Amino acid sequence: MRHLVPAALSLALALFATAAQGFEIETVTEFPGAGNGPALRVISTADTDLFTPIILAFQRDNPDVTVSYTTVSSGQLMQAIAREGAVYDVAISSAMDLQTKLANDGFTRARRSAATALVPPWGKWRDHVFAFTQEPAAVVISPAAFAGLDIPRTREQIIAVLRAHPDRFRGRIGTYDVRASGLGYLFATQDSRNSETFWRLAEVMGGLGARLYCCSSDMIEDVASGRIALAYNVLGSYAAARRDLAGRIEIIEPQDFTTVMLRSALIPANAPDPELAGRFVDHLLRLSWGKADPAAYPFPPIDAQPGGDNPALRPIRLGPGLLVYLDDLKRRRFLRAWEAAMVQN
Hints:
- By secondary structure, the chain is of the alpha/beta class.
- It has two domains: 9-134 and 262-304, 3-Layer(aba) Sandwich (D-Maltodextrin-Binding Protein, domain 2), CATH 3.40.190.10; 135-260 and 324-342, Periplasmic binding protein-like II (D-Maltodextrin-Binding Protein, domain 2, 3-Layer(aba) Sandwich), CATH 3.40.190.10.
- It has helices at residues 14-20, 48-61, 74-83, 96-104, 155-164, 166-169, 182-194, 197-207, 216-225, 236-241, 274-288, 328-342; strands at 9-11, 27-31, 39-44, 66-71, 90-93, 108-109, 124-125, 129-131, 135-141, 173-176, 211-213, 230-235, 250-252, 258-261, 264-268, 313-315.
- Strands 1, 2, 3, 4, 5, 6, 7, 8 and 15 form a nine-stranded mixed β-sheet that branches.
- Helix 5 packs parallel to helix 8 and helix 8 packs across helix 12.
- The longest helix is centred in the last third of the chain and has 15 residues, at 274-288.
- It is globular, with a radius of gyration of 20 Å.
- The model is unreliable at 1-20 (pLDDT under 50).
């Protein structure tokens, strides 16, 4: 579910755009500029309402620029850029591996500036992919659903409570459908590299009839409504942004290890206005790494030395290592194992 901010002008263009192109669009929102200035086309996996303050801050410095903001899933973003040659100035995604693959396969262009120089080497790749957030993969629970139980803080504790109370949690566990969600696939493969506990947890969730989702937003809504009791590998930044749900959800960063994703931006090779695109990427990097305007930055503060104070944090690094599980054979093997554990029909 995508939540649109009333201040933004939401356009009913999704059906038209989907008919014109093969990839599936969720929303198209236009932020009009003043006069007849240039237009910046952004394709992104980030919810519109979360990204609105960033866009409005950019327009304060560039009042003539109209921003057209298209939201898609990470897999659809990959299809749009790599397979269909869709024309956008900036592509933003939470799926670090797919962003890296776009750059590796020649679908991006380089950007070098004073702003890109702010990013440490581990936060960018070949001057083509630039991280501008650090966001944990969290567990979101319904406190009401856990009434009378100890709140689990590790994966082992989640396994224990689910096994001890199967009737309470049957059909009330949610996680990504990694076959469709690029971010879900990234989180799952990283979990499997960090600990064998992931596979035992997957089997337990699958045995309880876990519900499979495309998006963090939908999982958070269902936890808050009571439809599910626990959502695994939800974007913590999305849950934290839902202040309206305070009291109905609790956000847990697992103490055994917490995977930290870097949301990233790139400029497609066919961007119609690469100079304007570069200005927008620079804007993102100044907000994040330069801390230019904290009020316009809706994500957790970025840390140039992630995990230094918390050994449980496991930041995912940008680089060719992310391409391992995108190999067709490895992907098929992983998905077979995941389906065997999670989809127990």
